[in-house]
Design a protein that fits this description.
Blueprint (H helix, E strand, L loop, with lengths): L5 E2 L1 H8 L3 H9 L7 E4 L2 E5 H16 L3
Antiparallel strand pairs: 1-3, 2-3
């Protein structure tokens, strides 16, 4: 079975350069991977989904216009 790595918000902020409010705003509009509920008071993001999103942003930013 493939191990799934879960990132906490601070890790997501560090990897993406986004702040908390932007992450949640983009999640609400489905422009960012959705968090998963870990406990009653804790959420996390699947690392592979966050990295895929980041790679898509890199590709999009480098497209010729």
């Amino acid at each position: 079975m493939l191990a799934i790595k879960i990132l906490k918000r601070q890790e997501v902020e560090a990897i993406t350069g986004l702040k908390r409010s932007t992450i949640y705003k983009k999640m609400k509009s489905r422009e960012f991977p959705l968090a998963i509920k870990l406990t009653e008071h804790s959420v996390g993001w699947i690392k592979s989904e966050v990295l895929e999103w980041l790679n898509e942003r890199i590709l999009y930013s480098r497209k010729e216009k």
